[in-house]
Design a protein that fits this description.
This protein has 451 residues and is mainly alpha-helical. It is built from 21 helices and 7 strands. It folds into 4 domains: 106 residues, Ankyrin repeat-containing domain (Serine Threonine Protein Phosphatase 5, Tetratricopeptide repeat, Alpha Horseshoe); 159 residues, Ankyrin repeat-containing domain (Serine Threonine Protein Phosphatase 5, Tetratricopeptide repeat); 125 residues, Ankyrin repeat-containing domain (Serine Threonine Protein Phosphatase 5, Tetratricopeptide repeat, Alpha Horseshoe); 49 residues, no CATH class. The protein is 44% helix and 5% strand. It has a 3-stranded antiparallel β-sheet with strand order 6-5-7. Strands 1-2 form a two-stranded antiparallel sheet. Strand 1 and strand 2 form a beta hairpin. Helix 7 packs parallel to helix 9 and helix 13 packs parallel to helix 15.
């Protein structure tokens, strides 16, 4: 016997049977069946929410739900942003979901807070029954390409949801749902969010988990455009090359295998984003770990142009001499006819950049000694009026521009981090919680100069 107390419209019902009798009496009297209490509950919401809980009364609950529907109850009223259909989805009650859909519940209704559809709600709360619910919603006419308030389609939800650690069963379940969505017409190249990103770009950002990695492979195998660029010019290859060091060694493996997959699928290695970066310059800029160095080698072996300059005037080699700590890779790049006598937009030579890297513990004297054997003018001064040797006598290198936003008219700050970084303006400092160079958090900062 059920003894759970139900409260509705400030009245208490000792059992579910008592509440069912109340509802059926309201139906018979022709009263307003859409009335909502102070918690926005309706009779229908309470019945749907408790149908599984009170299994002994399930038959009566289902019967009364059908009577409410026959009497014209509003299926689109919301409680906590959800319709009754979405509530049934959260409960995984396929019988009730079917009843509601057959009664005309809107399978494309979007909640009032996040713009989520029933499909999105299903995938955002994936369970053992989710595959069957997705299948039912698709069969019932769910629009697979609607976007939520953040610009995400239901397919974009998948890599975002499984970017954390999940068990293998959940990964398999999600992969099967993704296959069904794609087969049913979900756009794999839809440009969403505020930067026109695709689902492959999202997967490329979070492919450190095996689940997302397999989603990325599925997208590529399904014909996703590997050369799509978002509104800032980023491609999936750039994203993977930039973020390979963001996670554990296991994550590095998945990123690297995705980069291989993208290259094999015809990714353009030399596309540039709004900062002029290519996949190679990103891998070179963040080459302080073995994983990125392997990407540098892979991209060059695949034919990436090593002499492309970004908007700061730096090439792959510029970043390698400052950040890689790898003489072997630098020598390999130079052997591929990399330009060595270049100047970036601050008039820094490779010698300047290496010296700066030495002070930041991202380069070393072996690299500098090698560079000194090349045909690079050792007397050249940069825009700060310094030759490269000047930086080896400083406690830190102070930039005259912000090397994050490239502003030239804001105060520069020095972070209290291991490398005493002084390369960011005060506005960018407030937006970061760790040094962009040594990757360590900083306790505080000081404003040192107006540039």
């Amino acid at each position: 016997m059920d003894s759970t107390i139900i409260t509705f419209m400030n009245k208490t019902y000792e059992t579910m049977n008592d509440f069912i009798k109340y509802v059926e009496n309201e139906i018979n009297l022709g009263n307003n069946l859409n009335v909502q209490d102070e918690s926005n509950n309706t009779m229908l919401f309470i019945l749907v929410n408790n149908t599984k809980l009170f299994y002994a009364n399930r038959t009566k609950c289902v019967s009364t739900i059908k009577k409410l529907i026959d009497a014209g109850v509003d299926l689109e009223l919301r409680k906590d942003f959800y319709t009754v259909l979405e509530k049934a989805i959260l409960l995984g009650d396929i019988e009730i979901i079917t009843i509601l859909i057959e009664a005309g519940a809107n399978v494309n209704a979007q909640d009032s807070k996040y713009g989520c559809t029933p499909l999105m709600t299903t995938i955002d709360n994936v369970r053992s029954y989710s595959y069957e619910i997705v299948k039912l919603l698709i069969k019932s006419g769910a629009d697979l390409n609607l976007v939520d308030s953040s610009g995400h389609t239901v397919l974009m939800y998948i890599p975002l949801i499984i970017k954390g650690d999940y068990d293998i069963t959940t990964y398999v379940r999600i992969l099967l749902i993704a296959k069904m969505l794609i087969k049913s017409g979900a756009s794999i190249d839809f440009e969403g969010c505020d930067r026109s990103v695709t689902v492959l770009m999202i997967a490329s950002r979070f492919c450190h988990t095996p689940g997302v990695f397999n989603i990325a492979k599925l997208l590529i195998n399904s014909g996703a455009n590997v050369n799509k660029q978002d509104s800032c010019g980023w491609t999936s290859l750039m994203i993977a090359s930039r973020h390979i060091n963001s996670h554990s060694e296991t994550g590095h493996y998945h990123y690297y295998k995705l980069i291989e997959k993208l290259i094999d699928a015809g990714a353009n290695l030399d596309l540039q984003n709004y900062l002029g970066h290519t996949a190679l310059t990103y891998a070179s800029r963040f080459s302080n770990k073995k994983s990125s160095l392997e990407v540098v080698k892979k991209l060059i072996d695949a034919g990436a142009n090593i002499n492309i300059k970004d908007k700061a005037g730096n090439t792959s080699l510029s970043y390698l001499v400052q950040y890689s700590n790898s003489l072997e890779v630098i020598q390999m790049v130079i052997s591929k006819n990399a330009t060595t006598n270049l100047l970036n937009f601050r008039s820094n030579t490779l010698l300047h950049l290496c010296a700066i890297g030495i002070k930041e513990n991202t380069s070393n004297y072996d690299i500098l000694s090698f560079l000194e054997t090349l045909d690079i003018d050792k007397t050249l001064k940069n825009n700060d009026g310094k030759i490269y040797l000047d930086y080896l006598e400083l406690t830190w290198y102070v930039s005259k521009i912000c090397e994050i936003c490239y502003s030239t008219n804001l105060p520069i700050t020095i972070l209290k981090c291991p490398c005493n970084c002084a390369k960011q303006c005060i506005e960018c400092t407030y937006k970061i919680n760790a040094c962009c160079y040594c990757k360590k958090s900083f306790s505080h900062f000081e404003t040192i100069r107006i540039v």
